[in-house]
């Protein structure tokens, strides 16, 4: 801004009038009338205009675009012609009238002579910003300047108190504001019209979502009213964040239950690597967090027996169908970097404050940082990772339900037969992390000096290892098993049963049908179980972990695996009324078998005895004795037939012979 003699400026917190502008110094006069001489260089560095709104006008001038620029150019050209005419002819009234007529035609609206004079004077005082139309929306004052400030204060008070309230219409807020103003100030405060109220609501509601999503409104209200701080991670493992959320996808928990599982992930901030991800069918418990910790501290290549077999068994559903070699998935799983977490940031959930999780971290030398209450910004990276998993992976899965009820379709439950099992979703998620997430470029891993270069988590970890090499040693096999949850079972002659699966080992000979020394468990033995390892469990006995393998290997046989897959599909398609349709049949049979025949009266018993004694009755015992005697005689009689004799008169039936006359008479008599 060019300040001339007679103008005003602000310097060192005070306002001065400019008396004279010299070549090296400026004479200023303060509000008390005192004058002082200040060097021109000092004022160039420290003075400010008295009306800072001019800077806003310049910004508004730029924001208005080409239309405003062309209008100002037309005014500038007109003023230049007026100045030139005044310098040439000494009078500019005729030129001002001509320019007003020309501007009216050029701008498409009537421009008066007085308007031209006002713009001419404003241009001399303010420069180009003075040529802007002060009636434009960009130069208007704050909305509602004609409204009593107490009304605006009441609006802000009501909107500020609705951070956790349900979303209502503006009419409800209008009634609340009106009641508050009348209660505090009575009728002395005039209320604006409904339309003005609604404009005030729109102006005061910016960034609050008072009439939008209640969840978004609550999250914004929890954000601190200050600039967000930053903690830069200087190396992998220095800052690790962990959190749990319910997934927006339905899976099959078991053959009779479907639901939305909970996902717990552990994320390294420096490299954005997902160190572990575990699904649980229901509320995540403290021991589940210990399993997450165990999977993060033992890489896939060093996990105990059964991990690879389980992954390959489940992944055949998507690998074999596309004729993909399982070794490709194995290589990408093994390429994931191992990062030991030095510090883990958690929220204040009961599972994260439990003694199991905190005790495991303390034993392993891991520090814990607890986030502030209701402050998700304390662990923003893991929160954002959940959104990325939903958008990049979950929404492609069968059974995706959307992020809220209004995004959920009606056919989710109708697809229950095609839903993935929780075991399939677990292995599919881990494969996706190894294949896609760890090798995908991330916006948060951009080079600050070359923003077009974005690295993947694997590349970022290799860069850290190259510049600052660190030796991160994973846990041993026994350490991994020791962190797994424990179930107690009796060891029978066939082994142990866990989740309807039988596990056995040749080393169980000395433990079969033997009581455990733990009296509190009624003789049951402790068994370590990995929820996502179907093939092996471990018996904890005599200071070691004895592996017990799954005894049923029919799924590995060529034909039986297909048979069971077909049986599972048929079982899932079976309706709930199939068993109910047979209940009455089974009930009738069981009822008769339990009831037996009705008791008989004396006359009925006598009649039954007579019938039983009748030799002509097919079921009579007497007839049975006679038939047995006849059979014995028939076997004893040998009929000799002369070959030269004519056809015997008996027709080949020995029963017609004379030997049977006595028997026939007894039967007929």
TrEMBL record:
Single GO MF descriptor: nucleic acid binding
SUPFAM superfamilies tied to this protein: Ribonuclease H-like
A GO BP annotation: DNA integration
InterPro entries: Integrase_cat-core (IPR001584), RNaseH-like_sf (IPR012337), RNaseH_sf (IPR036397), Transposase-like_Mu_C (IPR015378)
All residue ranges annotated as the Integrase catalytic domain in the record: 232-465
PROSITE patterns, alphabetized: INTEGRASE
Protein name: Integrase
Organism of origin: Microbacterium paludicola
């Amino acid at each position: 801004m060019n300040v001339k003699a007679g103008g005003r400026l602000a310097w060192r917190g005070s306002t001065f009038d400019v008396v004279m502008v010299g070549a090296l110094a400026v004479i200023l006069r303060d509000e008390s009338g005192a004058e002082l001489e200040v060097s021109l260089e000092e004022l160039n560095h420290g003075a400010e205009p008295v009306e800072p709104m001019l800077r806003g006008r310049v910004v508004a001038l730029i924001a208005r675009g080409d239309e405003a620029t062309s209008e100002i150019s037309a005014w500038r050209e007109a003023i230049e012609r007026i100045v030139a005419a005044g310098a040439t002819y000494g009078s500019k009234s005729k030129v001002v009238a001509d320019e007003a007529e020309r501007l009216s035609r050029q701008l498409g609206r009537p421009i008066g002579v007085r308007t031209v004079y006002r713009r001419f004077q404003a241009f001399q005082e303010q420069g180009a910003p003075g040529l802007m139309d002060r009636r434009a929306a960009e130069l208007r004052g704050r909305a509602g300047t004609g409204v009593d400030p107490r009304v605006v204060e009441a609006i802000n008070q009501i909107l500020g108190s609705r951070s956790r309230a349900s979303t209502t219409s503006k009419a409800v807020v209008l009634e609340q504001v009106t009641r508050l103003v009348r209660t505090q100030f009575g009728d002395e405060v005039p209320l604006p019209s409904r339309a003005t109220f609604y404009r005030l609501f729109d102006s005061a509601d910016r960034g609050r979502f008072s009439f939008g999503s209640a969840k978004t409104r609550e999250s914004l209200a929890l954000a601190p009213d200050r600039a967000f701080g930053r903690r830069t991670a200087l190396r992998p493992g220095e800052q690790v964040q962990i959190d749990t959320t319910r997934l927006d996808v339905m899976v099959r928990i078991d053959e009779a239950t479907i639901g939305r599982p909970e996902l717990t992930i552990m994320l390294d901030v420096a490299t954005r690597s997902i160190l572990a991800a575990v699904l649980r069918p229901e509320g995540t418990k403290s021991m589940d967090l210990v399993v997450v910790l165990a999977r993060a501290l033992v890489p896939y290549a060093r996990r105990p027996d059964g991990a690879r077999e389980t992954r390959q068994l489940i992944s055949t559903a998507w690998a074999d169908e596309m004729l993909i070699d399982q070794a490709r998935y194995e290589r990408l799983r093994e390429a994931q970097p191992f990062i030991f977490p030095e510090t883990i940031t958690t929220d204040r959930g009961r599972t994260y404050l439990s003694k199991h999780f905190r005790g495991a971290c303390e034993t392993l030398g891991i520090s814990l940082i607890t986030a502030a209450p209701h402050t998700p910004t304390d662990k923003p990276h893991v929160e954002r990772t959940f959104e990325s998993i939903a958008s990049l992976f979950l929404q492609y899965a069968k059974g995706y339900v959307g992020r809220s009820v209004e995004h959920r379709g009606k056919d989710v439950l109708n697809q229950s037969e095609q839903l993935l099992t929780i075991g399939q979703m677990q292995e599919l998620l881990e494969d996706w992390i190894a294949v896609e997430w760890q090798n995908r470029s991330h916006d948060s891993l951009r080079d600050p000096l070359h923003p077009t270069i974005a690295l993947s988590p694997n590349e970022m970890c290799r860069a850290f290892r190259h510049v600052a090499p660190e030796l991160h040693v994973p846990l041993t096999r026994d350490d991994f098993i020791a962190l797994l949850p424990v179930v107690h079972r009796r060891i029978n002659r066939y082994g142990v049963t866990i989740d309807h699966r039988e596990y056995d080992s040749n080393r169980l000979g000395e433990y079969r049908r033997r009581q455990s020394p733990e009296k509190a468990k009624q003789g049951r033995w402790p068994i370590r179980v990995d929820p996502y390892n179907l093939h092996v469990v471990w018996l904890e006995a005599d200071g070691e972990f004895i592996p017990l393998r799954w005894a049923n290997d029919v799924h590995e046989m060529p034909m039986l695996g297909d048979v069971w897959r077909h049986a599972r599909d048929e079982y899932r398609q079976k309706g709930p009324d199939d068993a109910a349709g047979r209940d009455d049949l089974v009930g009738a049979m069981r009822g008769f078998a339990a009831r037996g025949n009705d008791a008989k009266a004396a006359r009925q018993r006598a009649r039954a005895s007579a019938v039983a004694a009748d030799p002509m009755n097919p079921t009579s015992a007497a007839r049975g004795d006679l038939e047995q005697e006849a059979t014995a005689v028939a076997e004893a009689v040998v009929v000799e037939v002369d070959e030269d004799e004519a056809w015997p008169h008996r027709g080949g039936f020995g029963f017609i012979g004379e030997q049977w006359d006595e028997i026939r008479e007894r039967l007929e008599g």
